[in-house]
Amino acid sequence: MHHTRPWITAGVALVGAGLVAAPVAPMAGPLAAVTVPGIQLTATDMVLDLVRHGLSQDNVDHILGTTPPGAPITAEGAAQAAFLADPTNPQHLQDPDFYNGIYASDFLRTQQTAADWLAAAGSPDTPVTNLAGLNELSAGIFEGKEQTEITGLLYLLGPISWMFGNYWMPQLGSTVDVNGMAFQDRFSDAIDQIYNNGGTVGEDGNLHDVAFSHGAAITTWVMMNVKNPDFGLYFSGLQQGLLPNTGQVVIEGNPTDGWTLVSWNGHEVAENPGLLTGLFVDFRDVMVAPQMATWHIIEALQGGDPADITAALQTGFTDVFNAFAAFPQAVIDTLTSAAGDAAGGSAAATGDVLGDLLGSLTA
């Protein structure tokens, strides 16, 4: 039932991987798990299911359409949306009443997907909140163009750079997602709004929400923000179109303590990253802070409000100072945890060998 974007093929994946070969290559192999140090959470966690829309007419016509309201979903897209309510679907959604809130972008294709799922679930009158921050990643100069390997690669060139901490890489011709800072701000604002809307905490102690968004926007923001990014899943996903229609990425956490990737299109993701991934996240966090601070100061200067300028300078200084102050300890914690896991793994392996030997002697 799932259709993918034909312009994202193995060729795109190979070029994208080549762009970031240095950091990605060592992460692709099996790595020792890292135990993240215990963190005192300061806020309730939210489990957020980010769902890509059903098959749209733009998908069928191979058009790169990223300006709302966009094309509607097709009859097959409506069937895909309805299948989200079917318990036989490995990625079926919970009953609508389970969620504290249901959200969609400003696009027809996400709103129709949400509506068709709700109708199939027997709750057609359940309200859906539209958030512009959930909109698709802007295509810039490629808006409305045919989706090919070349346009697909150029469309994702900036976002791939953002995932590795280079937020200044522009999105060619975009006035919405000018660069990684602009995209980070607008999508994060939507996630924060969903979280801040609160609701009833579930039996697991978490808030639960579902948001219907878009393939490029979902995967880009998740890879930019989670503590355990799985680059292997992302780059292999490029060959099939990032996410299939109605494919899902689930995250858990909160804006204060950060986000953890739970699953990617049905594949569970380890909470604790490998050593190299853990170190990458440490470096990424310290790289991103001054870029975001500079961007916010530039925005304030362009606005001309002295109060906004002062606030941007103060907040930016604090954020950068905190990021650099936390960096050495973060690296030490990552290395220490990796060493502890390696020792624990060795001890467990030795115990298994001794247990087998004892079993053979007493058999």
UniProtKB/TrEMBL annotation:
Annotated Pfam families: His_Phos_1
Recorded coiled-coil stretches: none
GO molecular function, one term: hydrolase activity
E.C. no: 3.1.3.-
CDD domains: HP_PGM_like (cd07067)
The keyword Hydrolase appears for this protein: yes
Annotated keywords: Hydrolase
Enzyme class: hydrolase
Protein name: Histidine phosphatase family protein
Gene source species: [Mycobacterium] nativiensis
